[in-house]
Amino acid sequence: MSPHPSSRWQPDLDRCRRRLAELLADEGAPCPELGASALLLRGIAGVDRATWASTRGISELEVFRMEAGEWWGPPDEVERRRALPAGACSVRLRTCASPIDTGC
């Protein structure tokens, strides 16, 4: 018996990330690229927010804020990042097991 043709299908992760970023931008997220990448990584891992937070050593609230495309961290860092011009954040993903590097 040969494998079903759909078993060879692979999702276009970059297209998915771009679409998620568009949706977050439409909702007014300050850094939609961050949120889209965070959502995509957790989706690839197939875990809930609590599990993702515990494996990353951060709180569920931080995961929620990251996935919403908000800056999070120490208050002075959050304010510094909010002062950056729109589109100044760039997200670079190294591996699904690595933290998200915002580049800011």
Fold blueprint:
Layout (H helix, E strand, L loop, with lengths): L12 H14 L5 H14 L3 H8 L3 H8 L7 H8 L22
Helix pairs in contact: 1-2, 2-4, 3-4
Q: What this model shows, in words?
A:
Mean pLDDT is 76; it is low at 90-104. Helices cover 50% and strands 0% of the residues. Helix 1 packs across helix 2 (32-45) and helix 3 (49-56) packs across helix 4 (60-67). The chain contains 5 helices and no strands. The chain is mostly helical. The protein has helices spanning 13-26, 32-45, 49-56, 60-67, 75-82. The N and C termini lie far apart (51 Å).
H/E series: HHHHH
Query: What is the strand tally?
Result: 0
For the CA atoms, what is the radius of gyration? Answer: 15 Å
Largest sheet: none
Helix count from the secondary structure assignment: 5
Low-confidence stretches: 90-104
Q: What share of residues is helical?
A: 40-55%
Principal-axis shape equals flat
Mean pLDDT: 76
Distance N to C terminus: 51 Å
Class derived from helix and strand content: mainly alpha
Strand content: under 5%
